[in-house]
Input
Amino acid sequence: MSPQQRGGETRSRILQAAMECFAQRGYDGTGVAEICRRAEVTKGGFYHHFPSKQAVFLELLNRWLAGLDTQLEAVRAGAESIPEGLLRMAGMVRQVFEAAGGQLPIFLEFLAQAGHDPAVWRATIEPYQRYRAFFRDMIEAGIAEGTLRPIDPEIGANLIVSSAVGLVLQGMLDPQGADWGQVAEESMHMLLESLERKEK
Amino acid sequence: MSPQQRGGETRSRILQAAMECFAQRGYDGTGVAEICRRAEVTKGGFYHHFPSKQAVFLELLNRWLAGLDTQLEAVRAGAESIPEGLLRMAGMVRQVFEAAGGQLPIFLEFLAQAGHDPAVWRATIEPYQRYRAFFRDMIEAGIAEGTLRPIDPEIGANLIVSSAVGLVLQGMLDPQGADWGQVAEESMHMLLESLERKEK
DNA sequence: CGTTGGATACCGACCGGTCGGTATCATTTT
DNA sequence: AAAATGATACCGACCGGTCGGTATCCAACG
Output
């Protein structure tokens, strides 16, 4: 195996292990040693691939956000109408939950760290603004195509983003508390029902 | 000054200092020594009043939640109709933000810690269930009194709680990003508009 | 009234242990 | 040989919590 391949594999093993540790014990709660143990790498290897613990965290955050971005964009491009697109985005919540296999609380870590670390903060807050703009544009398009009532797009986008964030958060905290994927779909359905233009 | 008074004052000074520290540096990020410095108490005094750092954190959490509870209940009792009550609860968001004076990120700490510490988790998750039940009852009452459309109360309550949580979260992360109090009111207004029974 | 006993409040040095990060060396690949 | 990779040992800082001791005040007693 080439060294690039080996190095890359070690690198992703570290990332994977770090994600699991952060999700279970939190950022401050997990030591570099623990990540190394789980990734079957020594400290030397760790600091060969990453300059610091924070760098690993930041890369994890950026990957997660990038994944969300591409998913959202794909759904938008594939949807026939705005309401249908929004509904399918609600379905993404279920996917997000299933994909992470109970290791989701790392999202909480992202948020908590954003409160203390300016670098994490910038990386966290910027996507929120992007998402608000994203849904604002969608709503405007929906109004233009006549499938949505003429509401204030800013407020509507905010409502969507807020509900999504709140939903994901509750799902993180209490995965067994409900079928959050289904709750997300039904909530978005109710929300849409009120935004959609009804033919009389 | 009686010793009880002195003791009580010291105790609340510790709580206040701890809240500020936790909000700025996070739970793990703040040492007991730092809390003591800010509260002008020594470590001995700290551990005289509290058995552990976690105990301080938990008391802070419980006080916050208790305050929210009493406020919500007061609004419900004082409202003439369900929609009016819901609208005034949206106004509470502005109050919450102003009352905390930018020290709000401690809410994030509550959430993050809930992911790791079972005691914090129980204290955090239980109010969510209570709030969902609270709003479900309100919606049911609203349907009964004829001011709300006959929607699914569970889903509606979930939508309200999720939006509120997401709104508060965004306000924490980016206090300067918007007038969150106003955004909360307008969002709730839009939400209500779709839930309210419209006379034709 | 003065004294005394003891409860409460508070002090600050100290401990065992952990942590993130570094320095150095060994091995493998090109 | 040079570069990439990763293993081992170690460092200094810091942290939560403990502990022996002191200051302050109240209540009971003589």
Notes: Chain A has two domains: 1-50, 54-195. Residues 3-4, 6-7, 10, 41-46, 48-49 of chain A lie near DNA strand D (CB under 10 Å from a C1'). Residues 174 and 180 of chain A are 9 Å apart (CA to CA).
